[in-house]
């Protein structure tokens, strides 16, 4: 009898779970298309705006670039300039540049709708010093850049930091972005290979950012020094929030166990980002550490 009861238990319980399962047919309303507007603008640079058409949440097709929008930039509520269409949804105007200390508004009219947003360029923050040192490592030596700044007090500041070098060997004297790493907790957030920084851990203090790069970046086919460029962007809060959420969504892409992440959006009656930044660039020449790329044992 006990064996029979045990058998019935294992048969009935799965049936009970199956009978409780419900299928819900959710109908998500399609509210139509809206403009998707993306524009990161910098001091003394032209505005480049990319406009796409939004898509339905269940639509897996590619975003379609918009080539017939009216894109205007308003400066300090008085100066209005209309951007010209270029290609693949990009609009710009070569004789109109963004400036620090001025407020900007973007308005994009498409398909009877106007999407708009506001932004400005934060004050440029200089790099006060750059030091370098070799860091021994079991997996191969690292080369460290110590980048020092004086963070302004009594305000929240946001930065983007990156390293590039003039590559004469493989990039025909073009700039090559260099991937860097750091154990500094203030450099925990990254965005497309750059560091996104909020000054809550060092507000109002002198701060040194340690950035480590692979030692292979110091090998060259000739004896000329290698020129590295350090770029410190002072970015707006909108820029920071967009970068952090965009990178987080990218990191979670394809994972069925991750919570969905909404990318920060500051476009009214549309989607996307309109955010400004100012950039301070410095450079340093480093003697090459050998010819060609060494073989690691």
Notes on the protein architecture:
By secondary structure, the protein is mainly beta. Helix content is 12%, strand content 43%. It contains 2 helices and 18 strands. It has helices at residues 2-20, 237-252; strands spanning 35-42, 46-53, 64-65, 70-75, 79-82, 84-85, 90-97, 103-110, 113-120, 129-135, 142-150, 158-167, 174-178, 189-191, 194-198, 206-214, 226-235, 271-286. Strands 1, 2, 3, 6, 7, 12, 13, 14, 15, 17 and 18 form an 11-stranded mixed sheet that branches. A 4-stranded antiparallel sheet has the order 5-4-8-9, with no helix packed on it. A 3-stranded antiparallel sheet has the order 10-11-16, with no helix packed on it. It is globular.
The DSSP helix count reads 2
Question: Structural class of the secondary structure composition?
Answer: mainly beta
Apparent shape = globular
The largest β sheet comes out as:
11 strands, mixed
Number of strands: 18
Features:
single chain, 297 residues, 11-stranded mixed sheet, 4-stranded antiparallel sheet, 2 helices, 18 strands, 12% helix
Short description:
The protein has 297 residues and is mainly beta. Helices cover 12% and strands 43% of the residues. It contains 2 helices and 18 strands.
């Amino acid at each position: 009898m006990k064996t029979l009861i045990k058998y019935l238990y294992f048969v009935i319980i799965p049936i009970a779970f199956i009978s409780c399962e419900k299928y819900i047919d959710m109908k998500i309303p399609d509210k139509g298309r809206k403009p998707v507007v993306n524009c990161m603008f910098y001091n003394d640079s032209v505005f480049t705006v990319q406009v796409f058409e939004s898509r339905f949440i269940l639509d897996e097709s590619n975003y379609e670039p918009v080539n017939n929008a009216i894109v205007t930039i308003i400066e300090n509520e008085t100066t209005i300039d209309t951007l010209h269409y270029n290609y693949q949804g990009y609009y710009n105007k070569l004789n109109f540049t963004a400036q620090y200390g001025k407020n900007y508004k973007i308005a994009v009219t498409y398909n009877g709708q106007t999407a708009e947003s506001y932004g400005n360029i934060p004050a440029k923050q200089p790099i006060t010093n750059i030091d370098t040192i070799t860091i021994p490592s079991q997996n191969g030596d690292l080369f460290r850049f110590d980048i020092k700044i004086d963070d302004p007090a009594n305000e929240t500041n946001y930065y983007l930091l990156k390293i590039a070098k003039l590559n004469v060997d493989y990039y025909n004297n073009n700039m090559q972005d260099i991937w860097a790493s750091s154990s500094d907790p203030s450099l925990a957030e990254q965005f497309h290979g750059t560091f996104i920084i909020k000054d809550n851990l060092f507000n109002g203090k002198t701060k040194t950012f340690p950035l480590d790069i692979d030692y292979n970046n110091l090998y060259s086919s000739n004896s000329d020094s290698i020129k590295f460029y350090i770029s410190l962007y002072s970015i707006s809060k909108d820029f920071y929030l967009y970068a952090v959420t965009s990178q987080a969504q990218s990191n979670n892409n394809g994972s069925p166990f991750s919570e969905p992440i909404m990318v920060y959006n500051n476009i009214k009656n549309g989607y996307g980002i309109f955010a400004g930044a100012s950039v301070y660039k410095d450079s340093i020449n480093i003697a090459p550490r050998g010819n060609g790329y060494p073989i690691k044992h």
